[in-house]
Amino acid sequence: MHIDWTVVLASGLASFVEFVEAFTIVLAVIIVRGWKEAIIGSIAAVALLAILVIALGPSLTTLNTEAFKIIIGTLIMLFGLRWLRKAILRASGVIAKHDEEKAFEKEKALLESTGTRTASLEFGSVAVAFNGVLIEGVEVIFIVLAIGSARGQIVPASFGAAIAGLMVIVIGLIAKGPLTKIPENLLKFIVGILVSTFGTFWVGEGLQIHWFGGDFSTLLIAACYLVAAILTVFLIRATLAKRLISQGASN
Amino acid sequence: MKVLANICNEAIGLLVDDWIYAATIVAWILLMVLVTKAFRWDAVGGIFVLGSCLILIWFSFQKIRNIKN
User: What digits encode the pLDDT tens for the residues A36-84?
Assistant: First the structure.
């Protein structure tokens, strides 16, 4: 079989961007919650994608991707903005900072008391990993079909996408080490911004909004959420401090 | 069964605890769907992001409204 290497390269490069977006979401779930939720969500999405490819094949390209992106983007936005609000409230001292060791001890005690080794599974985190992998997975399938089917090179196009996927996973796992050294609450703040950003971006894509700078507009969206979040933390802190002063003066 | 119960618990928690917040985000997205269907504004992306940021700021402030001390 003749392999057109330009197809491999084009498919690999185009898929690389999609894999980076999916892996960012999965990595966020690994950092916030753990491996179990990220792996279950990702495997479930890959299984669903495999079923879709087997069942529909090339006719997948006729699917209404806009509606799909709006639905998945909305779900991701819901979880992302919820996480980000919690991070804002933690940073401004409204709710207690999460103590991982305490949470682990509580979980351990619960498992020991019930005599089961099944740890609790957080639905939200599984759903975020599932949605992230599903939406980007569909895009990768579209890229492979669009680039590959035009020249009868589906296998080389799939090969290019697979290499890109592996590269992103390896780079992501290397990056995870340094990421774990960042304080937990700061990390959750960043993750909240990232998940909200991708949710917003995907809803916008579904609405066929022409984002300024294409995929790079995610950086601008993230900057907007970052500014809004930092501003809110300062405003809440100032409000609480003002309240304390006025209470002190009245006592 | 325990895993399933935990999944249901989390899903219900999301709907019950933050349902007004969740409903506002969904309503905002639906409004954007209508706006993009009716108009072809270049600025709609910026409006969408700005509105989402304002929802985040507003609902973060709602949490401190009931704090007395």
Answer: 888 898 999 888 888 877 777 666 666 667 887 888 888 888 878 988 9
Which residues of chain B make contact with A235, given a CB cutoff of 8 A?
Answer: 57, 61
What's this model's pTM, rounded to 2 decimal places? Answer: 0.68
> Is residue A4 helix, strand or coil?
coil
Residues with Cβ < 8 Å from A179, sequence gap 6 or more? A27, A31, A187
From chain A residues 9-68, the ones with a CB under 8 A of any chain B CB are none
Determine contact, residues A45/A135, Cβ cutoff 8 Å.
no
ipTM of the complex: 0.80
Q: Where are the domains of chain A?
A: 5-250
pLDDT digits (tens, 9 = 90+) for B34-47: 988 887 777 888 99
DSSP string of B1-62? -HHHHHHHHHHHHHHHHTHHHHHHHHHHHHHHHHHHHH---TTHHHHHHHHHHHHHHHHHHH
Cβ within 8 Å, pair A70-B7: no
The yes-or-no verdict on residue B24 having pLDDT over 60 is yes
Element (H, E) at B66: none
3-state class (DSSP) for residue A92: coil
Q: Using CA atoms, how far apart are residues B54 and A24, in angstroms rounded to an integer?
A: 25
Nearest residue on chain A to B41, judged by CA atoms?
A209
Tokens, residue A193: 């911004």
Q: Which of B8, B18, B44 sits opposite A82 (nearest CB)?
A: B18
Which residues on A lie below 8 Å from B10 (Cβ)? 121-124
DSSP A5-26: HHHHHHHHHHHHHHHHHHHHHH
